[in-house]
Design a protein that fits this description.
This protein is an alpha/beta fold. The protein is 35% helix and 22% strand. The strands form ten sheets. Strands 4-19-13-16-12-5-6-7 form an eight-stranded mixed β-sheet, with helices on both faces. It has a five-stranded mixed β-sheet with strand order 23-25-27-31-32, with no helix packed on it. It has a four-stranded parallel β-sheet with strand order 22-24-26-30.
Length: 713
């Protein structure tokens, strides 16, 4: 490497500052400027090795043809590139590499090498601001630190990222159909109705599989879309008990663990992995530490952190930088498909599979209903021998929800040697794909009025052993896609930078041919209620789809599913409640029923908690909170009742009528910043007017009767 580049000298930056994209008329002048830099020592020659380090690969043969005794005469080199009309792009690469050379003194050698690789791969624009002034300020170090971080985390490095980006962007611009060569069919699966005998049968089968269960939470997002500044898993699922999502998930896993240990040797510990991001990692760690892992054992929870990828600003795959700071690389999330890569890199899946884990369930950060379905899903996976099982909900034709489809190669696909594939098809691609079927589009089934293709909700159950085998083979790198928003019909300019993305539900693309992939469909009210929209967006979405997916709807749905569970047992309660609008968002209002996982982790277990359901009556204004080992023998509730049985205690509720003013929601000014965000995103606070509260901590058996909790001898 030229010794004259060891320190950033003024001549390098004085000349380099003038370099940029030259027009054909300016190229001779640019040649002169480049040669002044190359011939900084004034000897009229340069070593072949040093010159090869500066020129693009396609100019290497020219350089090697000119070299004599390991050196190149610069006059001959200049004549050669003038005669060959070397492109503007090639000159820009040389220009960029000269700037990079000028910064060798302030950059580690691996970063210099990376910068040179990037210059060779369409990123010369990144180095145009590199001059003497910016070098003295150390600004190139900031950019290269970001690029190095991305390079080390992305499989194959940034060179591979750019290569993939160019291919995918070209396909996007050309409007290539990703499903060309396929004909859709309804996949193998199981349709269940929550609470009926068939559901209970599969839930029972799943309970037998719990000793081999593991769980993965995808939690890389902040609550910005909700109008909440913290991490979403720290949000309360409901404000009656203020149980946050992460706490609720931990409670469910611990409750399922307790069930697994009633049938085993009492030593089963169900592992739990959480995928975080740079935005959420530290806050998730802090939340767990502050709450002692919500009761989980040391080492039971593993955090794996996702990294971002460079944003791309054009069809050439050029990386984007901040408009106000060219040394600040813009990055974007790579998508939740990274969870497979991260689990592989952490060695978790192999470790789990080797230790006896049979099933791994994946779910996302703010779906408080998901554990109502996971046990039955495991039962279906076992019964049908599914390697991949997608939990789905019934879908209406035209609904903006992706669908699970079995894609079978047609004649065109067979010529391309395509393999059969069962996978999610996004809703904006679905109708065009279904037009190739006899029904001619996204149409309803005549009997049900629903689409025969179930709706994807990004909840998955994998068989652990084949998953571990696949990760070893593929390293968990899920096929990517790109989705730029174009400014013009010709698709030449982006509205804003894009990036490559991957989705966890695209994992079946990594499975071996012949792998059995299917679905379990359950009523939406029982297993899916996302919380992701602020009040204004939720109102608009509810008008279009009927589902606001906001703080108030998530809470309302949590109460509603518990009312429905009680109704299924034969308890007198209005399960559907009354639909009322909260700031224009329709919510199902009724009794606020909070059944902790420690009270009942499954519907089958819930049945044992109410031996005489006809002796229980709950009014619509009531609030009922039950936590721990409690049996409700008799109860008429018209108000608020909270019963908490701490570990080591047993409580029987044998009560007449509990009547008080109870709890009710009180509307608030959502713009009042003196009120906590977790309430403002809902539109209300909880006014606890009155209530009967029992918390039993001393070990023993107790009976609650006539307003008192008495210990049994």
């Amino acid at each position: 490497k030229p010794t004259s580049y060891a320190q950033p000298t003024s001549i390098i930056y004085r000349e380099a500052r003038t370099m940029g994209a030259a027009t054909s008329e300016q190229q001779l002048q640019q040649y002169d400027e480049i040669f002044k830099l190359i011939d900084i020592d004034g000897k009229g020659e340069i070593s072949t090795a040093n010159l090869l380090a500066l020129v693009p690969v396609d100019m290497s043969k020219m350089v090697e043809g000119l070299q004599k005794d390991g050196k190149v005469n610069l006059a001959e080199f200049k004549e050669a590139i003038t005669k060959n009309d070397v492109s503007k792009e090639a000159l820009e690469i040389v220009s960029a590499k000269l700037r990079i050379a000028g910064c060798k003194a302030i950059l580690p050698a691996p970063q210099v090498q990376l910068a040179q690789v990037l210059a060779d791969n369409g990123q010369t624009h990144l180095f145009k601001p590199w001059n003497e002034e910016s070098a003295k300020a150390g600004k190139p170090k900031m950019l290269m630190a970001s690029l190095s971080g991305c390079d080390s985390k992305y499989p194959g490095g940034l060179k591979e990222y750019v290569k993939k980006a160019k291919v995918l962007l070209a396909s996007s611009k050309a409007g290539t159909n990703p499903f060309a060569g396929y004909t859709p069919e309804v996949p193998v699966g199981m349709n269940l109705n929550f609470g009926d005998d068939k559901f209970l049968d599969y839930e029972g089968k799943g309970i037998k599989e719990l000793k081999g269960a593991a769980f993965v939470l995808v939690a890389g997002g902040l609550g910005e879309r909700l109008g909440y500044g913290g991490i979403k898993v720290a949000l309360p699922l409901e404000i009656t008990t203020m149980t946050c999502y992460l706490q609720f998930y931990c409670q469910n896993i611990l409750a399922l663990q307790a069930l697994a240990n009633t049938e085993g040797d009492g030593k089963v510990q169900l592992p739990f992995a959480i995928m975080t991001s740079g935005d959420t990692h530290a806050k998730t760690e802090a939340l767990l530490k502050e709450n002692k892992n919500f009761g989980m054992a040391q080492g039971q929870i593993t955090l794996v952190q996702q990294d971002k990828v460079p944003a791309i600003m054009n069809n050439d795959g050029a990386f984007a930088t901040d408009s106000s700071d060219p040394f600040k690389l813009l990055t974007k999330p790579h998508g939740h498909g990274d969870v497979h890569l991260l689990l592989y890199q952490a060695g978790l899946v192999k470790k789990w599979a080797d230790s006896g884990v049979e099933w791994i369930s994946f779910f996302q950060d703010t779906n408080g209903l998901v554990f109502n379905a996971l046990t039955a899903c495991m039962g279906v996976s076992k019964e049908l021998g599914l390697e991949v099982n997608s939990l789905t909900v019934p879908r209406k034709p035209g609904e903006a929800v992706g669908a699970i489809c079995k894609l079978v190669p047609n004649e065109e696909g067979k010529k391309k040697s395509l393999s059969e594939l069962t996978i999610n098809v996004e809703y904006n691609q679905l109708d065009a794909l279904l037009k190739t079927t006899p029904v001619g589009g996204d149409q309803a089934d005549e009997k049900s009025g629903l689409s025969p293709y179930p709706g994807n909700i990004n909840v998955l159950v994998f068989a652990a052993k084949p998953y571990a085998k696949n990760l070893e083979k593929t390293h968990g790198v899920v096929p990517e896609f790109v989705n730029p928003k174009y400014k013009d019909a010709e698709k030449t300019t982006f509205k804003k930078p894009t990036r490559l993305e991957c989705m966890m539900q695209d994992y079946p693309r990594l499975c071996d041919e012949g792998a059995k992939v299917g679905f379990t469909s359950l009523d939406r009210f029982s297993c899916f209620s996302a919380v992701k929209n602020n009040i204004n967006d939720a109102k608009t979405k509810a008008e279009k789809t009927g589902f606001g997916e906001s703080g108030c709807t998530g809470e309302a749905d949590a109460y509603k599913i518990n009312r429905k569970k009680l109704k299924l047992l034969g308890i007198e309660i209005d399960d559907d409640g009354k639909v009322e609008k909260v700031l224009g968002i329709p919510c199902s209002m009724g009794a606020k029923v909070c059944l902790a996982p420690s009270f009942a982790a499954t519907l089958a277990q819930l049945k044992t908690r109410f031996p005489e359901p006809k002796a229980v009556k709950i009014s619509s204004k009531s609030t009922l909170v039950l936590e721990g080992d409690i049996t409700v023998k008799k109860l008429e509730l018209d108000g608020a009742l909270t019963v908490i049985a701490k570990p080591g205690t047993k409580v029987v509720i044998d009560e007449g009528k509990v009547e008080n003013d109870g709890h009710e929601f009180k509307m608030i000014d959502v713009n009042d910043k003196s009120i906590d965000e977790k309430f403002r995103i809902r539109g209300y606070i909880l006014d606890k007017k009155a209530g009967a509260n029992f918390e039993v901590a001393e070990k023993g058996s107790y009976t609650i009767s006539q307003g008192k909790a008495e210990k049994q001898q």
